[in-house]
Amino acid sequence: MIGLVTERLMLLDTASLYFRAYFGVPESVKAPDGTPVNAVRGLLDFITRLVEDREPTRLVACMDADWRPQFRVDAIPSYKAHRVAEEAGPDEEEIPDTLAPQVPVIEQALDALGIPRVGVAGFEADDVIATLATRAPTAVDIVTGDRDLFQLVDDARSVRVLYTVKGVAAHEVIDEAAVLARYGVPASAYADFATLRGDASDGLPGVKGIGDKTAAQLIVEYGDLAGVRRAAADPRARLTPARRARIVEASDYLDVAPGVVRVVRDVPLPPAAEWDRPLPTEPADPRALDTLRRQWGLTGPVHRLLDVLAARR
Question: What's the CATH number for 8-184+263-306?
Answer without folding.
Answer: 3.40.50.1010
